[in-house]
Specification:
There is one protein chain. The chain has helices at about 15-30, 55-65, 85-95, 125-135, 165-180; strands at about 1-5, 35-40, 70-75, 110-115, 140, 145-150, 155, 160. It has about 180 residues and is an alpha/beta fold. It has one domain: Flavodoxin domain (Rossmann fold, 3-Layer(aba) Sandwich). Strands 1, 2, 3, 4, 5 and 6 form a six-stranded parallel β-sheet that branches. Strands 7-8 form a two-stranded antiparallel sheet. Helix 1 crosses helix 5. It is globular and about 50 Å long. The mean pLDDT is about 95.
């Protein structure tokens, strides 16, 4: 089983990337046979129909990776009570038909959502907006459990996110997602 993580922040050391890395470790503990990878998509251009066909190579690459995944796990920050515009751009590319007679690559894919934020909502607002969009794109959303971690910078020790009391919730989500994907 292959789980592909999409981190909504492009910053290499972002809290959500660190959360995704921790989720990968939890998935390995839940199912040692599971593959977990974080999608590299920083080179995906802004969506523009003038360059849509043929798709730019970075877009073709991320589409292949999404197609090859059994499940998608999104880790989103919250910017002004919404998910980042860069993540919306990626989803716009992924929502477009791949070619003649082919649909878009997100159709029917199982999805889990998590996030850590500096503020008090723990990305709950961003996650709700994201779920609205991906539901329209016909993804199969695992609505429970979702993980929202507020006040993320308070959980940073030596430059690294320390999940502490949030770790059991991440483990529970990993277990539930593996069952959901199966």
């Amino acid at each position: 089983m292959r789980i592909l993580a999409i981190v909504g922040s492009l910053r290499e050391g972002s809290l959500n990337r660190q959360l995704a890395e921790a989720a990968g470790k939890e998935l390995s503990a839940v199912d040692p046979q599971a593959e977990f990878a974080i999608l590299d998509w920083a080179d995906v251009p802004l969506f523009n129909q003038d360059i849509e066909v043929p798709a730019p190579e970075p877009v073709s690459r991320v589409r292949r990776e999404v197609l090859g995944a059994d499940g998608i796990w999104v880790f989103t920050p919250e910017y002004n009570h919404f998910f980042p515009g860069t993540l919306k751009n990626l989803l716009d590319w992924l929502s477009r038909p791949v070619g003649a007679g082919q649909g878009q690559v997100l159709d029917g894919k199982p999805l889990a959502v998590s996030g850590v934020s500096a503020g008090g909502s723990g990305t709950a607002c961003a996650q709700d907006h994201l779920v609205t969009l991906v539901s329209f794109l016909n993804m199969r959303v695992m609505n429970k459990p979702r993980l929202t971690i507020p006040h993320g910078f308070d959980k940073v020790v030596g430059g690294r996110l320390e999940l502490g009391d949030s770790l059991p919730y991440l483990r529970r989500q990993a277990e539930a997602f593996m069952e959901f994907v199966r």
